[in-house]
Amino acid sequence: MGVSQPQDTPQKRITHDTIHFAIPAPPKIFTGRDALINEAVEILCRRSQNHLAILGPGGIGKISLALVISNTPEVQAKYQKFHFLPCDILEDQNGLIQGLIQVLGLHMQEGKSQHAILYDYLQINQNPLLFILDNFETPWNYKNARTEVKHFIEKIADFSSITLIVTMKGMEGPGDIAWKILGKSQIPTLSREAAREAFYQISRKIKTEDNSGKFDHLNEQLDCVPLAIRLIAQLAKKINLENLLRRWNELETKIVSESEAQPGKLTNVEFSIELSVGLFDPTAKDLLGALSYLPNGVPHWNQTLSKMLPEVPESEIKVFQLLDCSLVLEKSEALMMLAPVREYILVRYNISDFCHNQK
Question: Which of 17, 141, 187, 196 could form a disulfide with 56 if both were Cys (CB 3.0 to 4.6 A apart)?
Fold first, then answer.
């Protein structure tokens, strides 16, 4: 397979500690995902080589799923050890190669490039290796890196001893690889029962009829998104549900965050959404603003959207871009937006800005 050889150009140095401290711990409380876990274990433990893609919007629990799956007894028995690569700190092919060299514990050799050291090792390795490439949309969408990153992951996937798990926003896995898509499509939100169970376990609230009613009302605004549920449950340790409801009505998505100096995708819903929104031009943001005013979505959007929003040029292409970053979802031919995303877009990119831009 012909692959472009990357130049070892100077860039920020990726160390073992850089990667180690970017890896989250497996969640201690994890509800409503048994069927997905069982499906993934069955795929990964087949005799034939299979690569698994875990796809979905920010906050849906892709990282947690990957970690829980990789720590199951069946997967650990087959692979003995898995290597987790936090790709949100690895911008391109060179960064990915540096990262794999670090997690594999390989050492530089005089006169050999990084890619040669990595590929030589993988060529002679006979033990089953499981790589988790988390947040792969970062190098996949980075500037002009797509072609080299595509070649890189395709070549890694070709080694018979390697199994890949990739987590990313989007509708399909990267490159020309026969991915097994977990859940057959994107990862769904939690069921109401699983969301309620997670909330009570994390918040340690006593389950009463009054508390259940207040949480159910709040959960309608959270749309059963796992990250939002976890963050609200953490707040519920300090604030009673009545005040939490009042604060939600005042602040909406701003309340769904953990207190820290620099927000991250695992601790702040707004931060996760804004990372995706930042990839798009103003007309795509205009489209997001318009869609946020449609809580029931757009039925048969591919037939109706251009008529509803004639001011948005190439609206169908814009929709596919938004689908690719999971800012919107397609359900039964309807274009939908999860409630936390919709609430954020309503405030940040409102319809009045859209109308003003079209004058």
Answer: 187
Domain boundaries, the chain: 16-181, 192-255, 269-358
Write 279-284 long-range contacts (CB < 8 A, 24+): 279/141, 279/325, 280/318, 280/321, 280/322, 280/325, 282/357, 283/312, 283/313, 283/318, 284/318, 284/321, 284/322
User: Packing angle between helix 241-251 and helix 226-236, nearest 10 degrees?
Assistant: 130
- CA torsion 308-309-310-316 (nearest 10°) is -100
Instruction: For residue range 225-277, list pLDDT tens digits in order.
Output: 898 888 888 888 878 888 877 777 766 556 555 555 455 555 556 766 776 77
The CATH number corresponding to 16-181 among 3.40.50.300, 3.30.70.20, 1.10.10.10, 3.40.50.620 equals: 3.40.50.300
Residue-wise pLDDT tens digits, 128-187: 999 999 999 999 988 888 999 999 999 999 999 999 999 999 889 999 999 999 998 889
Is the pLDDT reported for residue 335 higher than 70?
yes
CA distances 170 to 112, 135, 281, 335, Å, are 36, 11, 18, 14
Scanning the structure block, which residue is given the tokens 């299979």? 50
Higher pLDDT, 298 or 6: 298
Q: What angle do CA 14, 161, 49 make, to 5 degrees?
A: 115
Residue 105 corresponds to which tokens in the numbers above? 């514990």
pTM: 0.79
